[in-house]
Amino acid sequence: MKLCIAATHPVQYHAPLFRLLARELDLFVLYQKGSDAEQHERSDFEKSFEWDTNLLEGYKSKVLAGGIDKEIARQDCDAILVLGWHSSFYWKATFSGIGNNIPVLVRGDSHLLTPTPIFKRLLKLVTHRLLLLCFDAALYSGVRSREYFSHYGMKDEQLFFSPNSVDNQFFFKQSASGESLRDELGIPAEEKVVLFAGKLVEDKNPHLFSEAIVELNHADKGRIHGVVVGDGRLRQQLMSRYSDESYLHFPGFRNQSQMPACYASADLLCLPSKHETWGLVVNEAMATGLPCLVTDTAGCVPDLITKETGMTLSIDEMSALAAKIALALERTWNRDAIRHAISGYDLNQTARGIVEACTYAVNRK
User: Fold this and answer.
1) Domain 168-342 superfamily per CATH
2) Threshold 0.85, pTM exceeds
3) Mean residue pLDDT across the chain
4) Contact at 8 Å (CB) between 279 and 113?
5) CATH 3.40.50.2000 in the chain, residues?
């Protein structure tokens, strides 16, 4: 069975999945554009860089120079998978599939908790139900994603579990290698570290995180370090504002292969985002056995956050972040249990869902 995947550009999380799928299916990935440093700079990182892992190795792909219609016809595929619907490129691939009588699948992690004005919610009841009629099957990333597809009219038989996942083994093995960010930052082994990992933009709430760390240290809770890994338009502002706080560290952007050492250095991951469709840093952290404190509107919460793996913070009580961090740091966490909890959210399950959805859609045609 031949599957064509339409993707806007290479992504570090997709590459290992595509390599795995290429062993299960005749896979061909059609990219709208390549991976370039300028593109990353435009994506809120405020920094030009290239990923330090090969995003195109191990599967067949092509960056399109022209329209997608001719390429879809040339590939003679059995099914098409689009990785969302927010881009016109995805809709061009979808309509090309429909025009060539090829079943089209969609994968997404949107959920109903994203703040939306009432008139838009009412409008979506019409527009999204009509748009989702274009797809033969949908791949949901978790509980809230499934609710979203169901809400807009997808039938149960059309829904297939294909979780948001990372290479769990990579993060576990690399985090156990002995490398640590503590050494670089001069943080003693006996002092606690809370990690923030992500783009330094307003929606991720790095200011709130930093203020919580300041509050904890001023409250004489013991020495608690906040390590803010990432880059973005707020980084210089944060570094300037907290330049006198020796327990706040801003080491900047860390590439994919460097992230396991960041998780290995921490006692807790904090994801205080205002809005988060999923939160793949939670997958990464849990793969290393790290407990997570996550705002309750993040898409991953009902799937990944339990009393054994972490804690949630209500979006309505963000001022209590410092107290929640203190509570999480007081607990003794079973890191083996955390790694076990993430084991069902791995690349094998993600690929399995895609293969099952393809089989269903092709047979349905």
Assistant:
1) Glycogen Phosphorylase B; (3.40.50.2000)
2) yes
3) 91
4) no
5) 2-165+346-364, 168-342
